[in-house]
Specification:
Layout lengths: L3 E3 L14 H17 L2 E5 L5 H15 L3 H4 L11 E3 L17 E6 L17 H25 L22 E7 L12 E4 L5 E6 L5 E4 L5 E3 L6 E6 L1 H6 L9 E3 L10 E8 L6 E2 L11 E2 H12 L7
Parallel strand pairs: 1-2
Antiparallel strand pairs: 2-10, 3-4, 4-5, 5-12, 6-11, 7-10, 7-12, 8-9, 8-11, 13-14
Helix pairs in contact: 1-4, 2-4
């Protein structure tokens, strides 16, 4: 069973300075135990309004339902990680011979200073996505505090590696996923192939259509059903390296049964990643993983995911 973690005492509506470390330690223990024993958790009482999530999904559908030529105006450009990704244009599991049966839109580099994005955003989604991005950013800082305590560090330890979110030189991204109804799915094709996320921590907002599966610790893939007013949270590869495998990145995928393939499915994901110049080292001093520079680590991965060469 996937744990349900209550963030009431440290959600985005709570003033950070008002919460004592002892209170955070209780939540941190629950959170870290959940990801250690299962691999991912549900977050409830996170403070992000339901209306904000609903609006982001609704405006997302409006964008994706447009003709291809209109969406192409916002296509991801060479060397960037912002913009529209066409149907079957990316493959997150490099071993699958067929590209994923979905579309997407990555919104990165939101400027927190004036609430605008340097890159183009479709007018129908801009306001809703920016609001959701800002809320997820605040939630991400709180979760980084909890994970820092779980690593035996000061509560602001991980924040020092995420200072540039929304200010450039950081690829933290709000991602809209769109799985259109299909007559059939190709052999060996997934909606989204098996993978673990690259960064620190990920939040996922699902609609009511199932399809997400996660590989639990020591087990097989299990369904991660949508639960109203919750966020699915999993850790990424950088968090696993920081913790020297004590906290592990969770492999997950989106599959479609013969009946599900005929349904539209949507989700919004927020990927919290370190700054490009962050040096990732094992916090326990074990050197189980060699130190890496996050920005350089990511370049070949971007190139492998997309049909186009996105490497600078």
């Amino acid at each position: 069973m996937i744990p349900l973690i209550d963030l009431q005492s440290y959600n985005i509506l709570v003033t950070e300075e008002s919460v004592e470390t002892a209170t955070l330690k209780v939540i941190s223990d629950q959170l870290c135990q959940g990801v250690q024993e299962v691999g991912l958790v549900y977050l409830k009482n996170h403070g992000i309004p339901r209306e904000l999530i609903t609006n982001a999904l609704s405006t997302s559908k409006t964008f994706f339902d447009q003709p291809r030529e209109k969406k192409e105006q916002y296509a991801m450009q060479h060397g960037h990680f912002h913009g529209w990704v066409a149907f079957e244009a990316e493959r997150v599991n490099f071993d699958r011979p067929v590209y994923d049966a979905k579309e997407g839109f990555n919104m990165s580099l939101l400027d927190r200073k004036d609430q605008t994005a340097p890159e183009k955003l479709p007018p129908e989604v801009g306001s809703a996505w920016k609001q959701l991005h800002n809320s997820c950013f605040q939630l991400g800082l709180h979760v980084l505090d909890l994970l820092s305590i779980g690593l035996g560090k000061n509560r602001d330890y991980l924040r020092q590696y995420h200072k540039k979110i929304g200010l450039g030189d950081n690829l933290t991204t709000l991602r809209a996923n769109y799985y259109p109804p299909l007559k059939e799915i190709k052999p060996e094709q997934a909606r989204c192939g098996e993978h673990s996320d690259f960064g620190t921590v990920s939040f996922l907002f699902q609609d009511e259509v199932s399809g997400l599966q996660a590989k639990v610790q020591g087990g097989d893939y299990v369904p991660v059903h949508p639960i109203e007013d919750t966020i699915v949270m999993n850790l990424g590869d950088m968090m696993q390296r920081w913790s020297a495998d004590r906290l592990k990145a969770t492999k997950h995928r989106v599959m479609a049964s013969p009946t599900d393939v005929h349904q539209l499915r949507q989700s919004m994901a927020f990927f919290v990643v370190p700054d490009n110049d962050a040096l990732i080292s094992c916090t326990d001093g074990s050197n189980k993983y060699p130190d890496i520079d996050f920005g350089n680590y990511m370049k070949p991965l971007f190139k492998a995911i997309f049909q186009d060469d996105t490497e600078n």
